[in-house]
Amino acid sequence: MEHTKNVYIPDSQNPRILIIGAGFAGVHLAKAMKNLPFQVVILDKNNFHQFQPLLYQVATSGLEPDSIVFPVRKVFRGYKNLIFRMADVMAIQTKDKYVQTDIGNISYDYLVIATGSTNNFYGMSDVEAHSIGLKSIQEALDVRSNMLQNIEKAAQSNDPIVKEKNTSIVIVGAGPAGVEMAGAFAEFRKYIYKKDYPELVDFPLSIHLIEAGDQVLSAMTEKSSRDTLKDLKKLKVKLHLETAVNSYDGDKVELSNGEVILSTSLIWTAGVKGQYPKGIEPDVVVKGNRIDVDEFNRVKGTTNVFAIGDIAFMHTDAYPNGHPMVAPTAIQQGEHLAKNLKLKINEWKPFKYIDKGSLATIGKKRAVADIGKFHFRGMFAWLIWSTVHLMSISGFKNKLRVGLNWLNSYFSYDKGNRLIIRKYKRIKA
Asked: Could you give the strand order of the β-sheet that contains 104-107, starting from the edge strand earlier in sequence?
């Protein structure tokens, strides 16, 4: 749909920086431009910023969704030079320097694409149609509702096949999100499942973790991978390494080794790809559907269009395949671009990623941490993980809410948010 009208934006004598996306990259760029001589406009299809590293806790009934989302307008309360518009960007017109949205057109002096990433199903349409990803708060709630609905169906049935497939959870991808979710479901099974569903005593929750590679947490050190494998086995998660998903029809998962798992719950965390509006030249789209940028995060072939965060592919000697698609990269690129935009173009400095370490948790008191040359596991790593994530959440109230929730769970082993607020319905392909 084409829009000829312009979105109302107050007039300004200052250059306009238009940011598409209120994720980590876009928000941190805008924060760094607070009350400077620029007009900063942020567009996002949602009116909130979400803390993606904890989506799995919402999905597994550990946290309420309000704890990890924060209104964009509240984030920027008191910013005199910032304007937010809730809009879905349809296309970018780089020649005429404006974007087309579902609410109209918006012009810019500088455009920053911070649209992040989405699930990558690698062309498997049947898996995409019947599984649920974990890239948004909406998907996290879908995972939670689907899991609880399926267990209720199992409790209502006398058919052992129905019970089996509705008490089986398949997680594809053994990166941090997959490992953390598998651990959280294992704790749900251990401390809650038997108490809430006594009629399913003969059908304990079955948790499968599928990984095409030969190890879990492949992006972390070998020690972290090995320690995590031990913890997952202790939690009785069924691991399928060097195994890929061939197909999934909503009832059964067919694996590359010929094995078939009956399951009505398949959660996809196996891959991501960049997402961006129309209008980007095809020759700057590279591996992983990401946008090719120079050392200043400027889109190749442009002078005033930038890409930061997951969507940006910056080739360097240290990162020949681009920087990792994680929150620290997005935050650092957003803050660095802000520093450059404050300077004259001949004073700009190239972006250099600072790796502050990697963390993953497998459950309470179970975690791994790689920080510089040091490796930690167990309780100490779990405390590091908890502190880092708690301090990174937006808003004091959200920090307090999550902290109290974790404190309660630590002593009671309870997951108090196992509510089906809205029923999940699979969209038919």
From this structure: 89-93, 98-101, 104-107
Q: Which residues contact 355 (CB under 8 A, 6 or more apart)?
A: 328
Distance of CA 117 to the CA centre of its chain: 8
The DSSP result for 225-284, as a single string, is HHHHHHHHHHTT-EEEET--EEEE-SSEEEETTS-EEE-SEEEE-S-EEE---BTS-GGG
| DSSP type of residue 236 | T
pLDDT digits (tens, 9 = 90+) for 50-95: 999 999 999 999 889 989 999 999 999 999 999 999 999 999 999 9
Q: At 275, list the tokens.
A: 């997402």
What does the alpha-carbon distance between residue 248 and residue 125 come to, in Å, rounded to a whole number?
9
Model pTM score:
0.92
Neighbours of 258 (CB within 10 A): 8
Digit-coded pLDDT (tens) for 8-48: 999 999 999 999 999 999 999 999 999 999 999 999 999 99
The answer to whether 224 touches 252, Cβ cutoff 8 Å, is: no
Return the closest-CA partner of residue 215 out of 206, 205, 224, 203: 224
Q: Which residue in this structure is represented by tokens 């008490």?
A: 167
